Amino acid sequence: PPELSILSSCSPSQLEGLCSFLQLSTCPEPFLVRFCSWLLALTPDLSYTSAAILAQQLFLRRVLSLTQPPSRHLMAALTSFCSKYSHPFCRVLVAAVLQEPGEGAEQTKLVCELVEECLEPHSVQLVLSQVLEVPLSEKLLPVLQAVLGRQEVLPPELLDLLVLTLCQQAPAFATSLNFAKLVTAVLTVYQSQVS
């Protein structure tokens, strides 16, 4: 709808107010899918800040409250949004999932699925750097495994940080099978760069 062009001209506070007025954080999921398809058609593209605000308003509450796998509609909306605005999406949503205390099994699975199937290579690197910024836990090991599964070429400084983190954390994960798989994956995927 032509009215959506207002999203490109709003200030951040106006956009937050508009999202609140439209109750986007609680709108039905089928509408969420349609709304995200409209966002993809917007020209010009949304600014980074506007996309980050929309990622927060549309998805943050829904994803953090997941107690079972996301619905087909929610997954379609997430995938659609990620296809165009993966960087702000990662900055807002993935960061929140990584910092969420506790198990967060469904959230972790969701991040893994997005890493494996949706995110652009530069966003995969962003997810890796975000994981390495927080204390490593058993919950985060599958996310690292998903990143390595993409077999992306990593900048040397990011690969060095990954290897250093794994070396430092090894004693804490001495009995973890997932950690052992992760180290094996690093040595397999980046064998020419790891001495």
Automatic annotation (TrEMBL):
Any single GO BP term: interstrand cross-link repair
Segments forming domain Fanconi Anaemia group E protein C-terminal: 1-194
GO cellular component, one term: Fanconi anaemia nuclear complex
Family annotation (InterPro entries): FANCE, Fanconi_anaemia_gr_E_prot_C
PANTHER family named among the record's database cross-references: FANCONI ANEMIA GROUP E PROTEIN (PTHR32094)
Name by which UniProt lists this protein: FANCE protein
Species this protein is from: Polioptila caerulea
Gene responsible for this protein: Fance
